[in-house]
Hints:
It is a single chain. The protein has about 170 residues and is α+β, with helices and mostly antiparallel strands. It has a single domain, classed as Gcn5-related N-acetyltransferase (GNAT) (Aminopeptidase, 3-Layer(aba) Sandwich), CATH 3.40.630. About 25% of the residues lie in helices and about 35% in strands. It has helices spanning about 10-25, 25-35, 90-105, 165-170; strands spanning about 1-5, 45-50, 50-65, 70-80, 110-115, 125, 130-135, 145, 160. Strands 1, 2, 3, 4, 5, 6, 7, 8 and 9 form a nine-stranded mixed sheet that branches. A hairpin with a 2-residue loop joins strand 3 (about 50-65) and strand 4 (about 70-80). Helix 1 packs antiparallel against helix 2 (about 25-35). It is globular, with a radius of gyration of 15 Å.
Amino acid sequence: MLTIRPEIPEDQASIHCVNQEAFGRNQEADLVDKLRRRGVLAISLVAVLDTAVVGHIAFSPVEITSGESSFEALALGPLAVLLAHQNKGIGSQLVTAGLEECGRLGHEIIMLVGHPNYYPRFGFVPAYPKGIECEFEVPDEAWMMAELKQGALAGRQGKVRFQPEFKEAM
């Protein structure tokens, strides 16, 4: 039986391994470790099958700035599932649970760089047409956002600034 729950300290090594295997490199695993060490993982959930961590999703704060004004949002990422457990709905369950937790905590806007064929099913739409730019150079179709509260972005626009650890992971 699959359980989605907040990470606990004992999960940290497993989370690192899940991200490392899912991406086939260390950048995302190291990113999560660095964000955690600095205390800026706003939400970190794991998917546990029996007693093994098989998936992970992280959310961290971002700042959206335009001129003298700014507002906060969250960035989704990374999302990772062990290769042997991919294409079984675990990633979808993590995203759904993560977005529900974001909403429960009062967050209204979620940003991400991700696969344009995957995330629209969760309400994500292209961000550039909404006037939201990314501080990094990313493909237009991969730069997405979701409003957890309808109209949260009304009259707002700007450039998203990620946590500094993301620059090292790019």
